[in-house]
Specification:
Mean pLDDT: 79
Number of strands: 18
CATH class of the largest domain: Mainly Beta
Shape: elongated
Number of helices: 8
């Protein structure tokens, strides 16, 4: 019994230890939540890229239908075939159309002979009328008969052209250079005309020109303001992981789409596909180059901070709070080497704060920034090449929280959230 009591006490102590352990606050916890390092301001090239995913679509796709109705007696295509403009696609049974053509051709010959006779008769009547041997009524009747014969010849010729067109419609040819995406019929099938049928006729095949393709990508509303037509883009298809395709932004669709409370805009990118590797319906990742600058001053994006972050860092590391000095603010000057002396002119570009390391001391510094991506930011003023700034690396949870708050603040003014208007 005594052993059982001892075992129960040990188990209770172990459970109590694991229950209370998550609530402990070690002295070095705050030190581990924030780690710092330094980085030098240097020159380099800056690329601002926006990434998205999309679907490959053909630029020109044609649903091929026949003007004539009838049975397919020849079908010379298969899905995936490359075809040229004017190449035979299908041939229909032309027996009826050919008979109509031959009949119309014979009618033209009859009408031509009838017109010749009417013209001769009209000429004889004219001579007789000039001699006073026939009445004016007889002369006018002969003239009318000639014009009627001429009219019948014109009608016969029109009927012949129509019959000829119907006969040619029984041979279906490709209207474009392209690839057969889909075939809908087979040899022996009877199809309906695409112009005389209420339903729109039978679709024979879908042909697409794939020498150039579209990528329709969805871009988040946060990034859409940086995209403009003619910007260059790089496309990677899942089917070709080691291959890159190049194109440019063709158009930005003005109507937004909202899916699962996420607002996006469709962006159409035209991509060269001369080798025919990209196929309709393929998934592709897109990188749009929204900006590019050469030989500019760069600092790590994580070196940019604000007063809230600095206050949190000071609270996490009390020893650093005393070492931070406000300097290089508008209207103030400093004699520290490597920094500009004065910033009195109002800047049109956004300004952020950095912590500069000068002679071993940490100083709060205001800089004007230009373009930026997820890793680096362009410095327009406030720092020069070779200056050293403090880089703050927070925990993953803090990074996610800050990114979320920054995005919310950038989108709109939320109730109860005041924007920082101090410059």
């Amino acid at each position: 019994m005594k052993k059982i009591v001892i075992i129960l006490v040990i188990v209770a102590v172990v459970i109590l230890y694991f229950v209370l352990k998550p609530f402990e606050k070690p002295d070095d916890f705050q030190d581990k939540s924030v780690r710092t390092s330094t980085s030098a301001v240097k020159r380099g090239n800056l690329i601002v890229a926006i990434n998205s995913n999309g679907i490959v679509e053909p630029i020109l796709a044609v649903e091929l239908k026949s003007k004539a109705s009838g049975e397919i007696i020849e079908l010379s295509i298969e899905e995936g075939d490359f075809i040229k403009k004017g190449q035979l696609i299908a041939r229909l049974d032309a027996a009826t159309a050919e008979n109509d053509y031959n009949q119309a051709k014979a009618d033209v010959e009859v009408a031509r002979v009838a017109l010749s006779q009417a013209e001769k008769q009209a000429e004889r009547q004219k001579q007789l009328y000039s001699q006073g041997l026939i009445s004016e009524l007889d002369f006018e009747s002969a003239t009318l008969a000639r014009e009627q014969a001429n009219s019948r010849l014109v009608q016969a010729k029109v009927a012949l052209e129509y019959a000829k067109e119907r006969l040619s419609d029984t041979v279906i040819k490709s209207p474009i250079d392209g690839i057969v995406l889909k075939k809908y019929v087979e040899k022996g099938q009877i199809i309906a005309s695409g112009i005389s049928n209420v339903s729109g006729g039978t679709t024979i095949a879908t042909i697409a020109d794939m020498s150039k393709v579209y990528i329709r990508a969805s871009v988040d509303e946060v990034d859409i303001g940086q995209i403009a037509p003619a910007q260059k883009a790089t496309v990677n298809a899942e089917s070709y992981p080691d291959r890159e395709f190049y194109g440019e932004v063709l158009r930005i669709h003005p109507q937004a789409k909202v899916e699962q409370n996420v607002t996006t805009f469709d962006v159409t990118i035209e991509v060269d596909n001369a080798e025919g590797l990209l196929m309709s319906g393929m998934n592709a990742s897109v990188e749009i180059i929204a900006g590019y600058k050469e030989n500019v001053l760069l600092i790590p994006r994580e070196a940019l901070t604000d007063m809230r972050t600095i206050a949190r860092m000071a609270g996490a590391q009390p020893g650093n709070a005393e070492g931070l000095q406000k300097s290089n603010m508008p209207g103030e000057s400093t004699s520290q080497p490597g920094f500009h002396q004065k910033q009195t002119q109002k800047k049109s570009n956004p300004t952020r704060m950095v912590i500069a390391v000068v002679n071993g001391q940490q100083e709060l510094w205001q800089v004007e920034i230009g373009m930026s991506n997820f890793e680096q930011a362009e410095v327009l003023s406030g720092l020069v090449e070779g200056d050293t700034v403090l880089t703050t690396i927070t925990s993953k949870a803090l990074q996610d929280r800050e990114a979320f708050l920054e995005r919310i603040r950038g989108r709109s003014q939320l109730p109860g959230m005041k924007k920082d208007t101090k410059k």
